[in-house]
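Hey, quick one: can you model this chain's 3D structure?
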Amino acid sequence: MAQDKNTPATQAAGQSASDSQSTSTSRRRFLTGSAAAVGAGAAAAVGFPSIAVAQTTTLRFQSTWPNQDIFHEFARDYVRIANEMSGGRLEINLLQSGAVVGALELQDAVISGALDGGHGVCAYWYGKHKAYSLFGTPPPFGWDAHQFLAWFWTGGGKELYQELLDMLELPLVGYLTGPMPTQALGWFKEPIRSVDDLSGLKYRTVGLAADLMDEVGAAVTIMGGPDIVPAMDRGLLDGAEFNNASSDRLLGFPDVSKTWMLRSYHQDCESFEIMFNKEKHDSLPEEFQAILQYAAKAASSEMYWKAMERYPRDLQAMREEQGVKTYITPDSVLEAQLEAWNTVIERQSEEDAFFKKVVDHQREYCERVVGWHLEGNTPKEPAYRHFFGKAPTDSSEML
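Sure thing. Here's the predicted structure for all 399 residues.
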């Protein structure tokens, strides 16, 4: 039977056909419009440059440390953190000491642009101005390296550091990082029992510590880390210090001496310096500049955590596996060092106004901050004795 054109079924069929025709028409209009838009876009592209994908920024960065030294590992950690923070858009390539220049030539290489940056210590640049060493090996005003870095980052030290760079017209940007524990007096043929044993002794150190040890009677030589052990082996040095159990063990000190004197005021606290060529640094996007700075702060904590794990283990290994005997530096020697610091500070302050400005600033900071710390914090040695039943110095001989 023929179906009425007005029945619901017929109406539905008609609507379906109409909708199909409408959809086809819309699709043709969309395709036509799209083609026109593509054409217009292509025409517009002729008049505007294409947007290139951002290129990776590469920096050449050298440390002042041998490749296997834990200090070079600390430099590597900084580089890794900075590179990761940039998401791969910044690539700092790390080189070991001597790859481009020797340890003591690093700063000049960064200034000249032969390197974009480097990892070292401020005491190495002490020859350019003795105040430089105040930013690496400051006087022992009772502070530790954490408080020293707090002075740099939040207590006004960073501004004084920049003032020093400006005064010397050194085109550098730098940060302090990595708190170093108190350094040992060093390695000797025989234990140092009194300050008289240091008289005329051929001894290696760096920075203001050179002035200090000269004041107590030693004949001081300044040299980079990799050269120390060969010099001791040839008899060119009677004693020397570098830094810590891990570095000293790797450098080979136990091969030329079995006597390590712990504790000293010559480098009571210290930190590393990260520096960059100023022109290169300032040409980087602000985001990268921020990464370089914040990576220094992050690496500072990571470095100390790693040191706390490694230094005691390497000290124990030197004792048990290499026959090293450790001795606690006598109080009489430490007192002589403090008196020598008085002389060094007074002499340098009289000779140079900027040195006096920095050391006075450090002294004021320590009187306030260290005084607060000592007043409010419990002494640690009684607690150690209580829980472990021994003195912290039981592993070393008292002289």
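One thing worth noting: Confidence is low (pLDDT under 50) at residues 1-53.
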